[in-house]
Amino acid sequence: MRTETRTAMRTATRTAVRTATRTAVRTEMRTETRTATRTETPSAGKARDRGQVAIEFIGFLPILLLVGLAAVQLGLIAYTAQQAGTAARTGARSASLEGPHEADCRAAISSWLADETTCPASIGADEVTVTATVQIPSLVPGWDFDPAVKTATMPLDH
Questions:
Q1: Which of 18, 68, 82, 101 could join 91 via S-S bond, C-beta 3.0 to 4.6 A?
Q2: 79 with 135: CB under 8 angstroms?
Q3: What residue numbers bound the domain in which 91 lies?
Q4: How many domains does the chain have?
């Protein structure tokens, strides 16, 4: 009988300890949740940090603008290369028909790119080759680029 009593007491003690531990953990979690949801008044250290994000953003802004300008400049370079290809094909087509290839070459591209465009033709025995050279405009002074050069060859049609 004594053994059964001791076993029963041990089991009751273990159960009581487990229940007390669970209750303590639940109470602690509730307290942490309440503390986390309360708004705290700014301390002296936090008052000195006010406006820090704005200052960091102002410091990052020039880098952000430079990356944006570089992206736009890259698009402008691609557009100019595409326009040079169009000018070369149009000039070669016009030269193969013995037309005004230089004027047709400049008329085939955007007017703001046509001013600094050259399209010399090289006429062979049965074909004509036109090389269009279009100057790439720069958004930022000091960023100078080589011109976009594209070549097109067409058979003579006369």
A1: 101
A2: no
A3: 62-155
A4: 1
Say how far apart CA 10 and CA 31 lie, in whole Å: 32
Q: With respect to residue 22, please indicate whether it lies within any of the assigned structural domains.
A: no
pTM recorded for the entire structure: 0.63
- Residue 98 inside a domain? The answer is yes
- Both structure tokens of 89: 């094909």
Task: Compute CA distances 50 → 22, 38, 57, 58, 104, whole Å.
Answer: 41, 20, 13, 14, 63
23 in a structural domain: no
Alpha helices in the chain (DSSP H): 2-37, 44-48, 52-96, 101-107, 111-114
Angstrom CA distances, 82 to 53, 75, 85, 109, 133, stand at: 43, 11, 5, 9, 12
Question: For residue 91, is it within any domain?
Answer: yes
CA distances to 23, 30, 40 from 35, rounded to whole Å, are 18, 9, 9
Under 8 Å between Cβ of 106 and 119: yes
| Backbone angle region of 98, left / alpha / beta, with phi > 0 → left and psi within -120 to 50 → alpha | left
Write out pLDDT tens, residues 116-135.
Answer: 899 999 888 899 999 999 99
